[in-house]
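Help! Submission page says 'invalid entity' but I think these are all valid:
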Amino acid sequence: MKVINKKIINDVGGVKITQLDIASADIASKALPGQFVMLMVSEKGERIPLTLVNADKDKGVVSLIFQEAGFTTKSLGKLNPGDILYSLVGPLGHPTEIKKYGKVILVGGGVGIAEILPVARALKDAANHITTILGSRNKDLLILEAELKNASDQIYIMTDDGSYGRKGFTTDMLKELLSKDKYDLIYSVGPIPMMKRVALVSREYNTKTLVSLNALMVDATGMCGCCRVSVSGEVKFSCVDGPDFDGHGVDWEELEKRNKVYSIQEKHICRLFPEA
Amino acid sequence: MKKEPVKVREASAETRVGNFEEVVKGYSEEEALLEASRCLQCKNPLCSSGCPVGIDIKKFIFHITQKDYKSAYFTIREKSNFPSICGRVCPAEYQCRKECVLTKKGSPFASEQAINIHFLERFAGDFGKNNNLDVPVEKEEKFSKFKVAVVGSGPAGLCCAGELARKGIKVDIFESLHKTGGVLRYGIPPFRLPWDVLDFEINYLKKLGVSFITNFLVGKARTIKELFAQGYSKIFLGLGAGVPSFLGIKGENLCNIYSVNEFLTRVNLMSAYKFPEFQTPVNIGKNVLIVGGGNTAMDSARVALRLQKLKGLPLNTTIVYRRTEIEMPARRLEIEHAREEGIKFEFLVQPKEFVGDEQGFVKKLICLRSKLGEPDSSGRRRPVIIEGSEFELDCDLCVIAVGLKANQILINATPELKTDKYSDVIVDSESMESSIKGVFAGGDIVGGEGTVIEAMGMAKKASRAIIDELS
């Protein structure tokens, strides 16, 4: 649970994305792409889930990449090499199903780009043809382009302002690709509105779509139901049934609302302890 | 002369709803002596037969009357590992006190006249705790080469670990959460079971040499097979029943509808009632409904009431239950406490549908009235819905406390582990050994939602079998 290495991946325009490498031989030896950990920064902290971006079995080190968005991720960003997390448990959730699908499109947005990286690498190793679409607000905010380029056969960059790659949303490119060719799987991680749009587009083309959901969690072992999501009319727990789900079945509106249930407290605590 | 039962001292309802401190203060020495003196010391006492672990109740009460509290403590400890805990959380009115000769025949639970065995047990338990009365350790050299893995640090796991460690077996307890104690920590609120009581028992195990490995989820971080390969001779599964049941009605995923586990875990384990000092939030409402009639329903209702008080809201928490008070499975004392604190009750009410506002927060619960019909398989009369009785309750926060099922992660990761139709682990009723040789189980993972003392009974059986096999 000791922080071994810290890397500021990006720090522009109020968006700070950090990578922490943390020593945990137990988690590293078991982690598979798509799984996550729960962590607490301090004894009085909140438990939050973060996707495992990398697991080095030989070194016994796992990597997490996160955007400093709320109180806990901000506190996490303050840690330095040598610091020790109060709690870290994992690997949790089902791994992404890795097999040879054929032609796969990966759609990543914002910090979700980091989360598709391990899946991209694994799918590539499983002899899939990988087309990756990355989206960000502008050129400066784009992360891990080189890493994903390496893991992909083709890569497209979309920026909201057109400052890099093409101007537009990831779904514009997705639509273009799907209208020209047949794909076997779409895997998407990013902000809820993006995943929702990805699912909407891919449904038109009847293409299987997996999304990795970032519901709120407490224990993350199936005991509290905080992370429940409706998928194809059934109630599922993101922590033990997911985090990957069929994007066409997810009740996005419900998830969006449930993820905002503590927004008042979040603002309050961030205001109270701005330096935390 | 017939002596009246000695009432236990409690914090007044008015004060206690403003904090999370222990409500029941327990007997003083004089009170304990007075209550103990009411015991008739029956020639053939029935009370012990009502105790799941068969504590010699007559004997320990006699020791109290003789002011020999040490012997009282050790008499209980012969059968029960956690007198201070059980004295606080045992549903004695359904167990030992129900069998007490002073309980009216045919009563569904103990009469008020029955000896307050649980309060006397607590008195003796706390005496032992406060005087550091350590139970003699019978470590045997031949066991020192063995290592046993206990999965889960709840009542069953703690008990099994203690039994084995006292023989000199090395025990490692694996716990997925960051704190130990299982349901005693995340489920039971501190106003019923203060953390220092729990920590005392856990520290005792540490003194015995038991290691606690927290933040470790067996089933994910390690399989059963891998634990054996790592050198553990036997494995005990005390996984508990932590999977919450929901009602399965429309609107149940609206914001501010909590499972009882989420609500209690946020408040108990994560101390959300001290937000923002503790950083885990929990919401509270003006019209809180709790659905259910068990102990977790009472606990969450009383937690909700305290949150309302701490927020400066008018106290307005209602328990919605589909049968009547008599069928409620909760401890009678907790029902009483809840009522004293101002919890309201809506009996014979069946939730039908939640209605939300535009932001996705719950605002109403549509319900149906019921009447009691014929008894069902549990022996309790089944609620029958009255046609056309639909009505609405205002509700801006709801806790669903309608039961818990076995934890599934390890079970799913271990296909060889045989389970029944409730997904509980199947064991031999004597040895508590599962379908996998060398893997034992006890507590709620084999029996649904039981009590601490039942979990202890099973853990003791398992530990005896483990000790036999290692001998």
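Support: the input was valid. A stray whitespace character was the problem, and the output above is from the cleaned input. The first helix of chain B runs from residue 13 to 16.
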